[in-house]
Amino acid sequence: MGFELELALLLAIAIAGHAVFAVFEVETPAWRKIAKWGVVTLGTWLVYRAAGHVAVAVPLGLGLLGLTIHCWWCSRHGIPPIHALPRRRYYELRGWAWRE
Questions:
Q1: Quick check: 69 and 80 in contact, CB under 8 A?
Q2: What is the largest CA-CA distance in the chain?
Q3: With the C-alpha atoms ordered 100, 73, 17, 80, is the resulting torsion angle positive or negative?
């Protein structure tokens, strides 16, 4: 088996991530989301080429790092990390315009 294992993991993360976290990325531009997945996929592929299936740790590690930073950032700004409420405050901290 080649890079299929890593691609399957990336697909599973993308599907689950979109289903669960899309509400928190409403105002994020499409190019930024695409670039993020491009970088993650390229990084995973490069690690796969150098170290084989150890590369499955790349998306898992980056996801854990992102979750840690997210929880720290939200807590520091007084927003519960799971629900990002109040939504108006979350938008304010992200630099997005609040629309009623």
A1: no
A2: 51
A3: negative
Q: From CA 85, how far away is CA 78, in angstroms rounded?
A: 9
Three-state secondary structure of the chain: CCCHHHHHHHHHHHHHHHHHHHHHHCCCCHHHHHHHHHHHHHHHHHHHHHHHHHHHHHHHHHHHHHHHHHHHHHHHCCCCCCCCCCHHHHHHHHCCCCCC
What are 4-61's pLDDT values in tens digits? Answer: 989 999 999 999 988 888 888 888 999 999 999 999 899 999 999 999 889 988 888 9
